[in-house]
Amino acid sequence: MAADVFSSVRTPTPQGRRGAGASSNRARNGLMNRMKDDLSQAPHEEGVAQVMIQSFQLSSCTLFNAQMQDEQEFLQKQQQDLDTALKKIIQQHKQELPANDTTMSSKAREAAMWELEERHLQEKHQLLKQQLKDQYFMQRHQLLKRHEKEMEQMQRYNQRMIEEMKNRQTQERTRLPKIQRSDAKTRMAMFKKSLRITSAGDTPEQEREKIKQFAAQEEKRQKNERLHQHQKHENQMRDLQLQCDANVRELQQLQNEKCHLLIEHETQKLKELDEEHSQELKQWREKLRPRKKALEEEFARKMQEQEVFFKMTGESECLNPTTQSRISKFYPVPSVHSTGF
């Protein structure tokens, strides 16, 4: 009977107890073993066994109450430490996370994107501007080459006109003596014929004198004709040279006007390109304002959501520290039912 009683109150050895609960279990086990040894030595003394059983039950109840009190104090202390640590971690995370992880990274990413877009617009403008300058540089180069060819053509044309004038004047100077000799013979024959008609009573000496005077006059007239021809040639050559110079000046003026028009056109195109870039940059900045505003609103919304989340999480964790959604768990404590009582 004593063996049945002991078998009915035997409990398994507790596992994982710490602190006061572990020491009380060791004391109770030692007492049970000592009393079992004493009872096993006198199985025939049933009355003594009943007294010992009652004493054992009383001591077991006392030990169990002490153990429960120790476990309750330990759990309360653990809960307080856990709530304090959770509040500290939640507050620190609440201060650091929005500023460092979410807001700063998003702002840095958006700022980098805006800077990249602005740099892209600047680079595109510079590229278009450089392309336009290169294009007009090639046009100026081609225009100068064409002007050089036009000037060479004009020089060749003037030189050809001068050469033609010189050849024509040379031919005129060559033909003039022949014409003068032919005219002189004709005029001398006509003078002699008229002299015979008009001066029938003159002596031969008088006729010879008149013919000599007529020949001197003819010589003077031919000389005047040669001088007149020479003066005429000089005037013609001077006029032609002036005309050539006027042609060259007119061509140069026309070429300068073309160059000036090209430079004005280039300046106008560059100005229009700068205005287009300024307008495009202005439109981009106007579109950037609502983007910044939307981003700030998004940041404010996220901050508000995080504040609400951390507030609700902190309240729930502090009110129910044994929930399964805890951030961390401290010191696992075995349940009371694992003691076997």
UniProtKB/TrEMBL annotation:
Q: Which InterPro entries match?
A: PKK, STE20_Ser/Thr_Kinases
* Reactions listed under catalytic activity: L-threonyl-[protein] + ATP = O-phospho-L-threonyl-[protein] + ADP + H(+); L-seryl-[protein] + ATP = O-phospho-L-seryl-[protein] + ADP + H(+)
Which controlled-vocabulary keywords does the entry list? Coiled coil, Kinase, Phosphoprotein, Serine/threonine-protein kinase, Transferase
GO MF annotation list = protein serine/threonine kinase activity
Q: What is its EC number?
A: 2.7.11.1
Q: Which residues form a coiled coil?
A: 140-167, 230-287
- Which segments carry the region annotation Disordered? 1-29
Biased composition, class Low complexity, residue ranges? 16-29
- Record's family? Belongs to the protein kinase superfamily. STE Ser/Thr protein kinase family. STE20 subfamily.
PANTHER family per the UniProt record, alphabetical: NON-SPECIFIC SERINE_THREONINE PROTEIN KINASE, PROTEIN KINASE DOMAIN-CONTAINING PROTEIN
Please give the name of this protein: non-specific serine/threonine protein kinase
Originating species: Anguilla anguilla (European freshwater eel)
